[in-house]
Write a structure and sequence with these properties.
Number of domains: 2
Strand content: 15-25%
Structural class: alpha+beta
CATH architecture of the largest domain: 3-Layer(aba) Sandwich
CATH topology of the largest domain: Vanillyl-alcohol Oxidase, Chain A, domain 3
CATH superfamily of the largest domain: FAD-linked oxidases, C-terminal domain
Strand order of the largest sheet: 16-17-13-15-14-19-20-18-21
Helix content: 25-40%
Length: 463
C-alpha cells in the first residue's frame, strides 16, 4: 500500500512558484497510482502529478494530493528494429540518454533541459528548434493513461486515436500518464557553430538561415542590434570545442569550417565561467540602477558572443545545457511568417519606452506544425520567441511592464503561450487561439467529469 506524507513543500526549479499539498505521494507502480486516485475519489480531493519541477509557472501546484513520479523511472523496452523506446512516465531525460547511448539510439530533438520527465516534457508542449522538427510530443508513438476512475487506456494512432491526439500535450488534466513510447533515431553527433551578426541581417535573411542549418536559432540582445546566430547540424567529427577570437564578418563565418580544433580550449571555458559570474553581479547592481541593463547586454555580448565558436559532441550534450540563473520566463509561438514583424515591433516598443528594461536574451526558435490538439504549433509552422528576466542571487526584478508589452505583441500576431510558462490568458483567449479547443475540452470532461486533475492554473484555462 502506498503511503503519503504531510508537510511537504513544493517549489519549482526557479523558486518562483510553490505550494503545500495536503498529501505527497511517490508511487512505485501503476497499482499504487490507482490507490492514490481511489483515495482521492473517496475524500473528494484533487490530484496533481509533478515531475522535474522545471515549469516556470504554477501548472504543477496544488493544495490537494500531489503525486511525484520519480520512482516510476524505468526503461521498459528498447526496440532497436523500430528504433523505439518505452519508458515509465517518471524517467528523467537525463536518465534516459545514457541508456539510449548503449543501444546506439537518440531522440531526434531535445529541449534545453534534461532534468525533466518524459510525461512532463510532452504534457507541457516542450520544444526546441528546427523547422523540420516538431515539438517533443511529436516523437511520441504511444502512451498509457490512467483516468480518474482508475481505468488504464492505451493510446496511439490506431488505438483511441482521438485521445492520442489530445494526450500528447495533456497539461496533466486528462489522467496520470504511466508509460510513453518514443520514436528514436540512430545515435548522432552535432556540430554547434555560433557567430555574431545583427538583427537586420538575420531577419532579412531568415529563410536562408532556416535552410542552412537543421537546428537554427538566434539570440537577440535587447537595447542593441547584437545577435548571436547558432547553427547545430549533424557531423561525423569527434567531440571538441573550438574558439576563434578573430572577428570576421557574417559572410566569412558561414563558410566551411576547419576539420580539426586547436589543441587547447581552456581559455574558452574560463571566459564563460568568469563571464556568467560577472553577469550575475552586474544584473544584481542593475536592480538598483535599471539604466545599466542596456549597457550590461552590450557588454555581455562583447565579452562572450562577439567571436565564432564551434563545438561537437553526441547530440544530447549539444542540445542541453546548464541553466545558470533562476529566472522569470515567457515563451509564445507565433506563425513562422510573422517573425520579422513581431520582433521588430518588440524592439520598437522597448525603444519607445526606455524605462522598460529587458535582460538578454530574446531567444528565437522555429518548429514544424503538427496535429496535436493543444500544441502551440497546431496546424502551423511556428516561431517561438522566448523572453527572460534573470533573478540575480534570487532577487526579483521589475518585469511587469515588459511582460505586458510582450504579451500584447504576441496576441496581436496570433501567438499561443507555452503551456509550462506563466501567462495571463483565460478560456476566452484559448477558444480564439486553438481551433480544436472545444474538442479537447469535451475529451477532458468525459475522462475527468469531477475535475480531479484541475488546479488554479487549469481552472483559468478551462473555465
Amino acid at each position: 500500500m502506498v503511503h503519503g506524507h504531510k508537510g511537504f513543500q513544493f517549489q519549482n526549479w526557479a523558486r518562483t512558484y510553490g505550494c503545500c499539498p495536503e498529501m505527497y505521494y511517490q508511487p512505485a507502480s501503476a497499482e499504487e497510482v490507482r490507490e492514490v486516485l481511489a483515495l482521492a475519489r473517496q475524500q473528494n480531493k484533487r490530484v496533481k502529478v509533478v515531475g522535474g519541477g522545471h515549469s516556470p509557472s504554477d501548472i504543477a501546484c496544488t493544495d490537494g494530493f500531489m503525486i511525484h513520479m520519480g520512482k516510476m523511472n524505468r526503461v521498459l523496452q528498447v526496440d532497436t528494429q523500430k528504433k523505439q523506446v518505452t519508458v515509465e512516465a517518471g524517467i528523467l531525460l537525463a536518465e534516459l540518454h545514457p541508456q539510449l547511448d548503449r543501444h546506439g539510439l537518440a531522440l531526434p530533438n531535445l529541449g534545453a533541459v534534461s532534468d525533466v520527465t518524459a510525461a512532463g516534457v510532452i504534457g507541457s508542449g516542450t520544444h526546441n528548434t528546427g523547422i523540420r522538427h516538431g515539438i517533443l510530443a511529436t516523437q511520441v508513438v504511444a502512451l498509457t493513461l490512467m483516468t480518474a476512475d482508475g481505468t488504464v487506456l492505451e493510446c496511439s494512432a490506431s488505438s483511441h486515436p482521438e485521445l492520442f491526439q489530445a494526450a500528447r500535450v495533456h497539461l496533466g488534466c486528462l489522467g496520470v500518464v504511466l508509460t510513453v513510447t518514443l520514436q528514436c533515431v540512430r545515435q548522432f553527433h552535432l556540430q554547434e557553430t555560433s557567430f555574431p551578426s545583427t538583427l537586420k541581417e538575420v531577419l532579412d535573411n531568415l529563410d536562408s538561415h532556416l535552410k542552412r542549418s537543421e537546428y537554427f536559432r538566434f539570440l537577440w540582445f535587447p537595447h542593441s542590434e547584437n545577435v548571436s546566430v547558432i547553427y547545430q547540424d549533424h557531423t561525423n567529427k569527434d567531440a571538441y570545442i573550438r574558439d576563434s577570437s578573430a572577428l570576421t564578418d557574417g559572410a566569412e563565418l558561414m563558410t566551411d569550417f576547419p576539420s580539426q580544433p586547436p589543441s587547447s580550449s581552456g581559455n574558452w571555458f574560463w571566459d564563460y565561467a568568469v563571464g556568467f559570474y560577472l553577469l550575475e553581479f552586474l544584473l544584481w547592481m542593475s536592480t538598483f540602477l535599471p539604466c545599466l541593463v542596456g549597457w550590461i547586454n552590450r557588454f555581455f555580448f562583447w565579452l562572450l558572443f562577439n567571436r565564432k565558436k564551434e563545438s561537437s559532441d553526441v547530440s544530447h550534450k549539444i542540445f542541453t545545457y546548464e541553466c545558470r540563473f533562476k529566472q522569470h520566463v515567457q515563451d509564445w509561438a507565433i506563425p513562422r511568417e510573422k517573425t520579422k514583424e513581431a520582433l521588430l515591433e518588440l524592439k520598437s516598443t522597448l525603444e519607445a519606452q526606455p524605462q522598460v528594461m529587458a535582460h538578454y536574451p530574446v531567444e528565437v526558435r522555429f518548429t514544424r506544425g503538427d496535429d496535436i490538439l493543444l500544441s502551440p504549433c497546431f496546424q502551423r509552422d511556428s516561431c517561438y520567441m522566448n523572453i527572460i528576466m534573470y533573478r540575480p542571487y534570487g532577487k526579483d526584478v521589475p518585469r511587469l511592464d515588459y511582460w505586458l508589452a510582450y504579451e500584447t505583441i504576441m496576441k496581436k500576431f496570433g501567438g499561443r503561450p507555452h503551456w509550462a510558462k506563466a501567462h495571463n490568458c483565460t478560456r476566452k483567449d484559448f477558444e480564439k487561439m486553438y481551433p480544436a479547443f472545444p474538442k479537447f475540452c469535451a475529451i477532458r470532461e468525459k475522462l475527468d467529469p469531477t475535475g480531479m486533475f484541475l488546479n488554479s492554473y487549469l481552472e483559468k484555462v478551462f473555465y
